[in-house]
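ingest -> validate -> predict -> emit
validate: passed (alphabet ok, no gaps, 302 aa)
predict: started
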Amino acid sequence: MGFLFQFQQTEDPVLPGDSDRILSGFFIINIRLMSNYSDQKVVVVCDFSDRMNEVIVHGARLADILKKELCLFGLWRDKVQKNEVQEKLIRMTRNLKSRLPELPITCLILKNSLRDNIGKLVDDYNAVLVVLHQADVARSLKAFQESSIPFLFVNGNSPEFLQYKNVLVPVDYRKASKDTSLWASYLGRFNRSRIQVVYARETDQEQAARLTRNVDFFKKFLSSLNVRHELIAGKSSSWGICNETLNRAGEWKGDLMIFSGSNSVTLLDLLIGLPEKRIVRKAGELPVMLINPRKDICMMCD
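emit:
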């Protein structure tokens, strides 16, 4: 259950770095809704750690690119924690509005875990993207596996990784590879980003044919939307193309990588961890967006 409130700034904002900063709730606070912004939300998961500001910076950047509300989201488990989280989120929201007056910002707190609430975020609160810190990848993967919207993992706030202008998309022979095309197209359309499709190298005839169909799909789909794109032949097989793309991101000046997560979880994955977890942890400051191939992708409203 949620409650909607109008919010107006009535006191001096709290600056980032203050010991008592900031935000989230069992309610939504609607600060300002611009007519050219959608009420769909880019959700930033707030844990009030020192690294939280990095996540908020990326979330605000994506919200502005996509013309969506920025939603600062917190979780609580008991009434004491609920009140603390609520107070912090209100103060953080007030601070952000003083700095970003044209960006519509909401804040929301819900009980229990992200996994418990991911469906509610999408169905009840119109979330289209969840933004988290790279350090949170392990504990957020269960929520991701239940999600019909992408998870974006970020680390740092270097200007070179806030442009989202050179999007790297590794493509393998899996049908799930095509699922990344939608969000690649969003960046191309709304941010005029260049999409660099890095496709694998396969020697098996059947796998090569499937890979070719995927690459042809990307070319036709992005061309139909007039999205700038480039096809790059990778050197790795489908099993290694994500790692190659990550390792060569600097060479290609990539500032975002989008790839599809695992279709299933094997015994080996349980022993050593899912490939997406390892890739996100190796990404450094490169933002990584994960698409869940197990769910139908929710589409954004233009």
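The longest strand covers residues 68-76.
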